[in-house]
Amino acid sequence: MLDAVVHWQKPTLAVKANGRGSYQRTRLNAYGFPRGYLTRSKRIKGFQTGDRVVATVPTGKKTGVHHGHVAVRASGSFNIQTVNGLVQGINHRYCKLIQRSDGYSYENRLLSSPWLKPGVSRRH
């Protein structure tokens, strides 16, 4: 007989497939005409879109430490998607690589179940 379920809430690694980018170098409009061109190389200043970075910005409007995924630009000015939102125009010199983009995003989650409560649930 089991009286209660305890310590069942454990962190779980959630993995989501994002892909590795597009091989297509030209964006097209609805009629099939070229709309814009992508750079020939995927890596800019040692970073690739989707890399996990931490950016420490010492001065300016965006001063602070920003953790998130980077979107690269050919100019070397990057966008960083954080949990608080998008931070635009961060220079590559302030970015430090944490994890290379491998086509997946990872997150530790504490999964809970609505019908089980710690220390209360009983087996019938």
If you had to describe this structure to a student in words, what would you say it looks like?
This protein has 124 residues and is mostly beta strands. The protein folds into 2 domains: 1-19 and 103-124, no CATH class; 22-101, SH3 type barrels (Roll). It contains no helices and 11 strands. The protein has strands spanning 11-17, 26-28, 34-37, 43-44, 47-48, 52-57, 64-71, 77-82, 85-91, 95-99, 104-110. Strands 9-8-7-6-10 form a 5-stranded antiparallel β-sheet, with no helix packed on it. A hairpin with a 6-residue loop joins strand 6 (52-57) and strand 7. The mean pLDDT is 82.
What attributes does this structure have?
single chain; 124 residues; mainly beta; SH3 type barrels; 5-stranded antiparallel sheet; two-stranded antiparallel ribbon
Task: Summarize it.
Helix content is 0%, strand content 46%. With 124 residues, it is mostly beta strands.
| Secondary structure category | mainly beta
The N- and C-terminal alpha carbons lie at a distance of: 9 Å
- Mind telling me the CATH class of the largest domain? Mainly Beta
Report low-confidence residues grouped into runs of 5 or more: none
Q: Can you list the strand order of the major beta sheet?
A: 9-8-7-6-10
